[in-house]
Amino acid sequence: MKNKIRVVVSGAGGRMGREVVKLVLQDEELTLAAAVDHSLHDIDAGLLVGLPEAGVTVTTDLEAALSAGGADVLVDFTIPQSAYSNTAAAIKYGVRPVIGTTGFTPEQIEELDKQCREQGIGGLIAPNFSIGAILMMKFAAQAAKYFPNLEIIEYHGDQKLDAPSGTAIKTAELIAEAREELRQGNPQEEETIEGARGGYYNGFRIHSVRLPGVFAQQEVVFGSFGQTLKIRHDSYERSGYMPGVKLGIQKVMGYTGMIYGFDHFIE
């Protein structure tokens, strides 16, 4: 039997972090090396997610968990303010980062890629781990070749910290690769309320909706003469991301350098 991949989960007490802990504890190909959370400690990781005791106590010290040795992968679902330093710390100790936190700048991703290559390890920063969402992005990029007039509308709960979402930005980047910049709308257009037309990207607009009761949805709306096309993906619960998280954990074991976007793993 092949060796299990040893996983450190950062942000273990968060809503996504708990799902990752549950995934790792229940998967025969993975094992939990450590669980880290700044707001929780001294609780067994299994009990944290409603499972039997796992023999791993949640700690607040990520550096100690990484430096202890034996870990293969860090999975991080924390906040943008700490994700970069967490990722850099993992790389320093030779632990492959799989990051679901958004908010990285292109310069930060480039620097992390350099650090990964110096260590000879792989890493992944993924704005979205949902396989359905990745397919939505790919289909949108394909459609943009034929329907260059489009807008992106993304919906999240009112506690989401960044706007637009990482998924929307990644979708926009893929579309920009497939279509030349085209400034849409009436050239004399004027916003009578600032921001009414959404954020500008490569000629099209991105709209961010933030409301309580919303989980995560995104649609790309294409317009042409006499027709429209809508490509939409809806997520209803966090467990839907876990197959993608597992695939990311497995894939980074065979890569060198930082991969930006889960779409690289979906052919």
From TrEMBL:
Q: What residue stretches are annotated with the Dihydrodipicolinate reductase C-terminal domain?
A: 132-265
Give the CC-aspect GO terms.
Answer: cytosol
Q: What Enzyme Commission number(s) does the record list for this chain? A: 1.17.1.8
- Summarize where (S)-2,3,4,5-tetrahydrodipicolinate binds, as residue positions: G166, T167
Catalytic reaction(s) noted: (S)-2,3,4,5-tetrahydrodipicolinate + NADP(+) + H2O = (2S,4S)-4-hydroxy-2,3,4,5-tetrahydrodipicolinate + NADPH + H(+); (S)-2,3,4,5-tetrahydrodipicolinate + NAD(+) + H2O = (2S,4S)-4-hydroxy-2,3,4,5-tetrahydrodipicolinate + NADH + H(+)
Keyword match Chloroplast: no
GO MF term list: 4-hydroxy-tetrahydrodipicolinate reductase; NAD binding; NADP binding; oxidoreductase activity, acting on CH or CH2 groups, NAD or NADP as acceptor
GO BP annotations of the record are: diaminopimelate biosynthetic process; lysine biosynthetic process via diaminopimelate
Q: Where in the cell is it found?
A: Cytoplasm
Residue stretches making up the Dihydrodipicolinate reductase N-terminal domain: 5-129
- Active site (UniProt): H156, K160
The protein's job, in short, is: Catalyzes the conversion of 4-hydroxy-tetrahydrodipicolinate (HTPA) to tetrahydrodipicolinate.
Q: What is this protein called?
A: 4-hydroxy-tetrahydrodipicolinate reductase
**Species name:** Paenibacillus durus ATCC 35681
